[in-house]
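Appendix B, example 12.
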Amino acid sequence: MSPAPTGLGGPPAALGSFPAAGVATELHRLSEFPGSWWYASVRDVDAPSGGRFDLPHPHGTCHLAESFEGAVIEKLLRAPTKVVLAERLDEIFHTTVAVRASPRTADLTSRRATRFGLNAEIHTTLDYGRTRRWAVALHRAGFRAVRHRLRGDVSQRHAGRALFGAAGLRHRAPAGMTSTVAPLDRTRAEAVLAGLGVAVRPIPAAVPIVRLS
């Protein structure tokens, strides 16, 4: 199936002066696995599966959010939904990353990015071949991460960071970062979801049978 039409163009040849993001003091990631530093990769930029900014192997990309609320949105609300299963929350680990120094990060949310031919579809289009081409080009230009908006956040207030590294699982945080992992705080997650109008419901233990007249 071909991707949805998009107005996002390709990256220009020269990106060395692309605007850089400041330091994010804290990052968050929700995952079913306690190993937080998973750098996802794709076979090529047009692969049908994979993430928005995943780099082709042997490079990869680790996706995090700049806030806990953003991490909840990124993990649980990527597709429109009104209900999240309570049992789903029990399967998730929460990684909190303290950042002392950030890698050189291209700021895709900067107004100055417009002059490079970028528009807001970099955050929302489902044509991941185009967004990955931007990631590849920025990686080649010396950037080691990109800052972007979260597609599941209709307010577009929350941002994420896609960090570049060697593909696969890494057991240590990047230089300048330290991470702690714990089971997801359900009460905190439910409060975020409630504020967004999303209910949390358990799987029914029994389903009533209604006799049709």
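The radius of gyration is 19 Å. The chain has one domain: 26-201.
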